[in-house]
Design goal:
500 residues; mainly alpha; 20 helices; 3-stranded mixed sheet
Length: 500
Amino acid sequence: MAKLEFETCRGVDEGSSSTSAPVATTTNSRLEVRVDARTEPKHRKRRIEKVPLTMRRDEKTKGYFDPMVVSIGPYHHGKKELQMAERIKPLVAELFISGSGKGMDEFRKNVLGIVDDARSCYIEGSTDVYSDKEFAEMMLLDGLFVSVFIEYMTPGYGDDTFQYELTEHLGQHDTDLVAGDIMSLLENQLPFQVLELLMSLKSEHHNLTDMLDKMVHSWQSRETTRQDKRIDDTEQPIHFLEYIWLWRNKLSQSNHTHGTSGNSKRRRLDYFYSFKSVAELKAKGIYARRGSDFNHRDFKFKSFFFFAVLEIPPIILSHRSFTWLSNQIAYEWTPRNPNNLPTMAFVNFMKSLINTRDDVKELRTRNILFSSYTSDEEVVQLFNNIPTFGLEDFNIYDEVKHRIHEHYNNKVKTWFAELIHNYFSSPWTFIAFVAAAALIIMSFLQTYFTISPRNYKLIGFNFTCGLSLFSASSSFHESCWCVWTICEPIVQRVNVCMFS
């Protein structure tokens, strides 16, 4: 896995007016997240933020940011609807501890030793209602629950016991929702250092960074070479969701930050283009094709003379996909997080490509979009519901958008595609064209043979004989004569209908 570097690991005090933020960059295949220590006050620390109010107040995203089964951390702790999972946390904790050779008291003692650091990872005031002992117990039980989940999800570490226990106590439906609550929600996270501590207490082979690396790469059924396997305390991400975000974006992370561009002289208007949906691009001869990589940044455009191809990475949409995307955007939007907004840029690009259900249908037909939703219209609506407010790093997709724009507005390259789209978009128009062309050809043949009669014209030559002679003809002139003999009754009938 690419090495995750944090020059300083800081947070934000609620209500802070500081605008400094870490910058995500890629250097020699390493993802680096840096905070400028010269402009960042030393007493400030990066924290597990809450979803910005501008997003949470949006009715269209209601339910996207709250856990459905299990609470992790203090922000949703104690909610009535989540008590069923609270009752099985001690049982799940025993699953983890039983293989460590240590007792619960030893785990509890170690967590209590970092309780102040753990508190400082949350928004100021959000943990005041808990004593040190109560907060440590929350961190312990929630941390062990997440640790067992990570074991279960990592090849070579866990077994099906965790899945069995959850299903036994929660049912299959709620069990299926647990993964989304743990991995997708910004407000349902634990400090990374708590998880690292618990894993290290289990055994020396339980290195959290190595396990997460194996887990996320198993999702793609492939292994990648890692330059650095460990992330030490000064370089670790603040929480699990940030780790997933960094992994999702590390392979093609931009060197730009939000508000800065490769060409500072460009106006904001220069980043907006006239092309829109997939269907509109198709009308101009620009066809969508599935890309080979699932990386959301891997859009490619190839322009040819009369047509072009837009390669779009495969997109798999489940009922938790929009929750995940919304929380990734919320993470990008909070203070002092990597701020080049790749998830916002991706969602905005997809919003421009998907305007109607016809666009969704075209992407499905091309095996680009795979959806568990029953209605294409529902997919359109859900994309539109994700709040981005038009914000993004416009540089991320600017090159491919600019190339699409150039082809889209090139009249020479698009006139032939428009001709086909406007006049031959259905088989009936094509059949009508063929019929009209055949009528013109037959009229030409009638005129030709009227002007140049042949002395070997066969009287009473019927349709069947015409076919036989055509198959046996050896010259162009004989072939033409046979075709005319076959078509003459049709032409005469057409003439009668037209001029009677």
